[in-house]
Amino acid sequence: MAEALILDCEALNVLARPSERGVNAERARAVLATAHERRALVRVPAPVLAEVYRGPRYDSAIDHLLKGKGLLVVPLTQEISRVAGHLLAKAKLGSAHAVDAFVVTTAMCFDAALIATGDPKDIKRLVGNQAHVKLFTI
Predict the structure, then answer these.
(1) Helix or strand holding residue 74 (H, E)
(2) How many Cβ atoms are within 10 Å of 122's Cβ, its own excluded?
């Protein structure tokens, strides 16, 4: 059974710059360590990078984290985009929530997935009744 941890923008930011995030960094590191212990896949949907890349000062911390063991960026595909669009329509959310929809769609590709998020309200709306997708609030 494929199990995955999916990182959203806030989770990725917290892990990349823990000294700026206090308690949230501890929570993020704990969930990442648990994922590694369970041999779960750790994935970052490519559109998340558009929310976190903000110039060389910020990019280097993100790039360093992504070069680490076990994190993989999931490319955006037409099928992922289609499913994400359908999730947005079903949840009656606009395109401002597209990256959240890509995060949820990526999670739905696995038998069991945990989304580490700083935005549980919108993510929960998009997850809907997908019982195999759980949330962990950073």
Answers:
(1) strand 71-74
(2) 19
* Residue 17: domain span: 3-137
Q: How far apart are CA 132 and CA 130, in angstroms?
A: 6
Q: Enumerate residues 6+ apart whose C-beta is below 8 A from 87.
A: 101, 104, 105, 126, 128
Adjacency order of strands within the sheet including 133-137: 71-74, 41-45, 3-7, 112-117, 133-137
Q: What is the CATH number of the domain that holds 69?
A: 3.40.50.1010
Give CA–CA dist 88/13, Å, rounded: 24
Instruction: Write down the pLDDT at residue 1.
Output: 55
In this prediction the pTM is: 0.94
Q: How many domains does the chain have?
A: 1
